[in-house]
Structure formats: C-alpha cells, structure tokens
C-alpha cells in the first residue's frame, strides 16, 4: 500500500489508509501482527499508516498549490505579455544598429532582408505563372469578365407525401376581389 496504482486515485488511497487506521484502533487496540515476516503492534503499525496518510495529504495540497500557481501565471502572463512584446519592439527600434546594446537586453538585431538574385527571381516568377495556369487562377478583372449563359430553366415543385390526409372541413368560400380598370386622365 506504499504506492498508488494507476487505477486507484490518491484520494481513494488516502480514504482507505484512514479507514485502516480507524479500524485497527477500534478492533485491535492492543493487537500484535506478523506481516511479511515482521512483527508489529497496533502502536507501531498505526504510525506507519499515518505517515502514508500524511504524505498523500501533502501531495494533494501541493497539487492544489501547483494548480493555483499555474492559474496565477496565466493571469499575469495575459496582462504582461503584450507589454513585453511592445517593449521588445521599442528596444529593437531604438538600438537597431547597435548590436552590443541589443545584447544587453538579450536581443539580437533582425537579419536584413536579402533580395533574391536575378536567376532565383526568374525561377520563382516562372513557377508562380505555371501554378496560376495549372490552377486556372485569374485576376479580379478577368473574373469580372466571365459571365454565365443560361439557356433554359426547369423548375420542378417539390411536394411532400402525406401519410394520411385529415378529413377536410368545409371552408368558407373566399370572396373574389374584382379589380376595375382605373381610368387614367391626363
């Protein structure tokens, strides 16, 4: 019982050890036991169990403190990280040409942009054009020029079959509305 298995939680082990202590003190107040070839009395066995219970309790308390510390760190980091990011940008801008001063802040100057050689630029352009052609990618203006042609449209109404039509109740006839042509005067 000195270590917990993956199937038994620390809480369950602690509960079991506390129950063993209580049961031993209640039913064997002055008992003598031989366990694993070693002789124990209730007075010597209970402190052994109590040490395990104390260690499990301390571990549970440490886990709670660790979770609390993690939550505290997340809260502080959410507030401070944007400030750190902005300050780093400020320092990089202020000392962009002074690598020794940047090193004092633990930063390095960003590497300058290295333009492509003429040959590499030509290869990249050829690849880009080949990809656009293979995908059929067009520009915005070319897309606007494309229009669809509709020759005929067939509309088929969708009707849902009914399981059983309820008995129709006679409805009052709807009065017909006749519109008379309006006279137009100029």
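Sequence proposed for the structure above (186 residues):
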């Amino acid at each position: 019982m000195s270590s917990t298995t993956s199937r038994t939680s620390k809480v369950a082990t602690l509960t079991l050890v506390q129950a063993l202590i209580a049961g031993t003190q209640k039913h064997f107040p002055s008992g003598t036991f031989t366990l694993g070839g070693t002789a124990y009395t209730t007075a010597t066995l209970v402190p052994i169990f109590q040490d395990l219970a104390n260690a499990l309790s301390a571990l549970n308390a440490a886990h709670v403190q660790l979770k609390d510390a993690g939550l505290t760190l997340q809260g502080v980091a959410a507030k401070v990280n944007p400030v750190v990011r902005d300050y780093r940008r400020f320092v990089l801008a202020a000392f962009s040409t002074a690598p020794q001063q940047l090193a004092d802040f633990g930063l390095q100057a960003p590497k300058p942009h290295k333009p492509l050689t003429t040959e590499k630029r030509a290869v990249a352009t050829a690849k880009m054009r080949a990809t656009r052609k293979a995908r059929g990618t067009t520009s915005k203006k070319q897309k606007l020029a494309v229009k669809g042609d509709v020759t005929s449209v067939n509309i088929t109404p969708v009707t849902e079959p009914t399981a059983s039509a309820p008995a129709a109740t006679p409805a009052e006839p709807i009065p017909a509305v006749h519109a008379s042509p309006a006279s137009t005067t100029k």
